[in-house]
């Protein structure tokens, strides 16, 4: 699809959520993110119909916050079928991703220690506690050439082979 696309500020009353969007996001959480970070990426809109193809809940959050405009990536020349394909693809591609819980827990612990804590991340301290509790290293295999000191012992994930220090993943409440 070789079309010229435009990204610009649009009036919220000139666009609308796609009526066939089956994804139900958390507009309240997104509202907090918009308040804290501002809009850091454009929503995607069909120029012909004004239908939102990606960012329906960002739009709803902006309305909740009393915004009248937002940044939109406008795509011209789409058929109604193409609009639906883009919307379905955007929702599905996000679901196809997976989370590295070890890396996420380290990142969240770092953010939790900052001045703003976990504000506007979509996580709270209960989520972090649950994530840390779920990081069960008991089924991991010890790496033979590593000292046996509990706090330094390396473990290897039997599923992916990643090595890390067991003490990095102990929950501290």
Structural class based on helices, strands and sheet pairing: alpha/beta
- Tell me the β content: 15-25%
How many strand elements?
A: 8
Overall geometric form: globular
Termini Cα gap: 52 Å
CATH superfamily of the largest domain, by name, is Conserved hypothetical protein from pyrococcus furiosus pfu- 392566-001, ParB domain
Explain what this protein looks like in three dimensions.
The termini are far apart. The longest helix has 17 residues, at 80-96. This protein is of the alpha/beta class and 173 residues long. Helix content is 34%, strand content 18%. The protein has a five-stranded mixed sheet with strand order 1-5-3-4-2, with helices on both faces. It folds into two domains: 6-96, Conserved hypothetical protein from pyrococcus furiosus pfu- 392566-001, ParB domain (Alpha-Beta Complex), CATH 3.90.1530.10; 101-169, no CATH class. It has helices spanning 27-37, 56-64, 80-96, 101-112, 125-134, and strands at residues 6-11, 16-17, 43-46, 51-54, 69-75, 141-142, 154-156, 163-165. The protein is built from five helices and eight strands. α1 crosses α2 (56-64) and α4 runs antiparallel to α5 (125-134).
């Amino acid at each position: 699809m070789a079309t010229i696309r435009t990204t610009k500020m649009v009036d919220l009353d000139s666009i609308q959520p796609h009526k066939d969007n089956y994804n139900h996001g958390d507009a309240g959480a997104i509202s907090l993110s918009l308040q804290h970070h501002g809009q850091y990426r454009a929503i995607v809109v069909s120029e012909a119909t004004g239908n939102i193809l990606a960012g329906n809940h960002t739009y709803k959050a902006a309305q909740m916050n009393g915004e009248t405009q937002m940044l939109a990536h406008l795509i011209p020349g789409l058929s109604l079928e193409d609009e639906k394909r883009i919307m379905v693809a955007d929702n599905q591609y996000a679901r196809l991703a997976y989370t590295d819980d070890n890396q996420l827990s380290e990142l969240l612990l770092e953010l939790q220690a900052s001045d703003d804590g976990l504000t506007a991340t979509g996580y709270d301290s209960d989520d972090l506690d649950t994530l840390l509790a779920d990081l069960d290293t008991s089924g991991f295999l010890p790496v033979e050439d590593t000292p046996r000191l509990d706090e330094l012992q390396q473990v290897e994930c039997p599923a992916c082979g990643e090595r890390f220090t067991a003490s990095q993943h102990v929950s501290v409440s």
